[in-house]
Amino acid sequence: MNQSTLKGGRLKFFFLLFAFILVQNVHSQVSVNATAGTISASYLNVNDAFAAINAGTHQGSIQIFVNASTTEPAVPVALLASGQGSSVYSDILIKPTAVVTVASTPTATNSSVFLLDGADNVIIDGSISNGGTTRDMTIQNLAANTLTYQSVIRFIARTTLGLGVTDVMIKNCIIVGSTAGNTGYSGSTMTTSYGILASGATATSTYTTAGGDYDNITIDNNEVTNCYIGIAISGTTAPNTADNNIITNNLVGSATTAVSCGLRGIYINQNVGTVISLNKIQNIAANTSISPAAIEVAGTASSACQVRRNEIDKVESISTVVGERMELTV
Q: Model's pTM, two decimal places?
């Protein structure tokens, strides 16, 4: 074999090896791009990427791309606020590049798929297209329907540390909880199953537990099913009310009652200036003597909130229909 043939063979081998590595990186489940620290890396799931961000591996403006369906850990990695520990970032975007399911199967109470602990400037956008509105990413909690305090996406604001949750957006996602709970249809009596929950300062907080400084949170164009409480944001009294949040264009509940939502479709507590508009809420059912509701605004500190142009299709308690299809404008 002459030298030119040998050299050509080696070049071909290294080219094929490089192409293989490149393809493997492109098609890894999760890829991360950052403007500082380690510029790019691949991970098995989103929570692994969170751990790397917390460790300061990726810094600056960070993009997390979900390229294939992932299995998230049973115990979530809390995404910490920038400046906590070693984390240093200006903003984080989580976005799919294909139709994917991001799911975890918790085996203990007080779990979620994603947990944002004081994290600000985070966007979870479930549409493949930039500026798109398709719901291409499903985020699902697969815990047994007997496990308490299960959420799909959970925010925690720790006012004692001066850590609120500000400027966060969740859009274009399919949010599937662990159980519709105590509806009389789901086969479960659970009352602590949540879709998107912002409340309290501990993992055991309920949807009514006062939190603090959940501000400028936008929840837009998501489908939320199979949870006792669909979407909840609970602030506390001044100066830690939940301010200027937007809950809009969401589909909450399901035409299939067994996987719909139970006690509340949308709940806000101690909110100021929050807007709830253009949502469709259907088949809310509670198998208890307490009153279910499609939308509830609670708390003595709540003010200047707007509830307008929401469509409500059946609210039911112990098989007694208390509300049929309507458009609610306040």
A: 0.89
Q: How far, in Å, CA of 306 to CA of 245, rounded?
A: 10
| Cα gap 173→124, rounded to integer Å | 8
Q: Residue by residue, what is the 3-state secondary structure of the chain?
A: CCHHHHHHHHHHHHHHHHHHHHHHHHCCCEEEEEEEECCEEEECCHHHHHHHHHCCCEEEEEEEEECCCEEECCCCCEEECCCCCCCCEEEEEEEECCCEEEEECCCCCCECCEEEECCCCEEEECCCCCCCCCCCEEEEECCCCCCCCECCEEEECEHHHCECEEEEEEECEEEECCCCCCCCCCCCCCCCEEEEEECCCCCCCCCCCCCCCEEEEEEECCEEECEEEEEEEECCCCCCCEECCEEECCEECCCCHHHCEEEEEEEEECEECCEEECCEEEEEEECCCCCCEEEEEECCCCECCEEECEEEEEEEECCEEEECCEEECC
Model pLDDT, residue 194 = 97
User: Smallest Cα–Cα separation from 148: which of 68, 207, 92, 89?
Assistant: 207
Distances (CA, A) of 106 to 69, 112, 114, 286: 17, 8, 12, 25
Rg of the chain (C-alpha set): 22
239 prior amide bond cis, ω within 30 = yes
* pLDDT, tens digit, 9 for 90 and up, residues 129-181: 999 999 999 999 999 999 999 999 999 987 666 678 999 999 999 999 999 99
For the chain, which residues score pLDDT lower than 70? 1-27, 159-162, 202-203, 289, 318-330
Q: Give the pLDDT of residue 246.
A: 98
CB atoms within 10 A of CB 237: 12
Between CA 21 and CA 23 the distance in angstroms is 5
Contact predicate 220/252, CB 8 Å: no
